[in-house]
Amino acid sequence: MPVQHIGQPLTVLESVDSSNNYAMGRVHARLASHGEAFFAQEQTAGKGQRGRQWVTRPGENIMVSIVLDCAILNPNAPFMLSMAMALACSDWFSSLAGDEVSLKWPNDLYWRDRKAGGILIENLWSGSNWQFAIVGIGININQVEFDPMAKKPVSLKQITGKNFDLMHCLADLFQALEKRWQQLMAARSDQILEDYNNILFMRGMIARIRKDSAIFETTIMGVTRYGELFTKDTLERSFAVGEIDWV
Questions:
Q1: Apex 238 CA angle, 237 and 240, nearest 5
Q2: CA distance linking residue 24 with residue 59, whole number of Å
Q3: CA end-to-end distance (rounded Å), the chain
Q4: I need a labelling partner for 35 at 20 to 30 A (CA). Which of 51, 173, 204, 211 fits?
């Protein structure tokens, strides 16, 4: 069988509740293959991290979900995939937006202190066997008006002053994703981890964190291959994804 790269084939959906839902449905129906991508012109119920909604203007941004065959990957380190995909988004975005791009743990794309995009990965398991991952990516491209309640969003157009062709952006993003996927397949996890920590948002800086009802300040030190955030203040601390909120 020919090798399928990320983004091949590509299906454009005019309107869908969630591209991740659509892709997952295709996987469950055994109709999807590795690398297949589903690009939504409009999402009526886009999904973000931890049950949040991803709201975006129709036809102005990248909203895409990609099916990845994860059977060959290490099932004990799914966050390594998350880091690789986030890095690919950063690789591509920084090629247009410049060197002020970072990744806010766990996998939000930032420019300076403003959010440009995010990733939601949903995994499909059979017992302890990691079968597929649906990688949902949302990146602000041409949108300039946002919900006033949104937390400091920014788009590529706001950064550069230019309009972008979404299909050209998508093709270049797929290349960046494929490159990082191949890095993952080649078991270059140490390089992925190093690259991720090198552009970690607020690394070496003091951040305000909320855990349960407590809010405290702590210095961001780095992230492990298993996705734990390490910080340091009077104590050395580690947090799992979903355990804390940024304040």
A1: 150
A2: 22
A3: 49
A4: 51
Residue at token pair 């069988």: 1
Cα 38 to Cα 56, 157, 188, 231: the distances in Å are 16, 23, 28, 37
3-state secondary structure of 116: strand
The residues that bridge with 108 in the sheet, in sequence order, are 104, 118
Gap between the Cα atoms of 43 and 58, Å rounded: 7
For residue 153, the SS3 value is strand
**The pTM of the whole model exceeds 0.85:** yes
Q: SS3 of 200, please?
A: strand
Strand 101-104, strand 108-111: pairing: antiparallel
Q: What is the pLDDT of residues 26-57, one digit of tens each?
A: 999 999 999 999 999 988 866 555 445 555 67
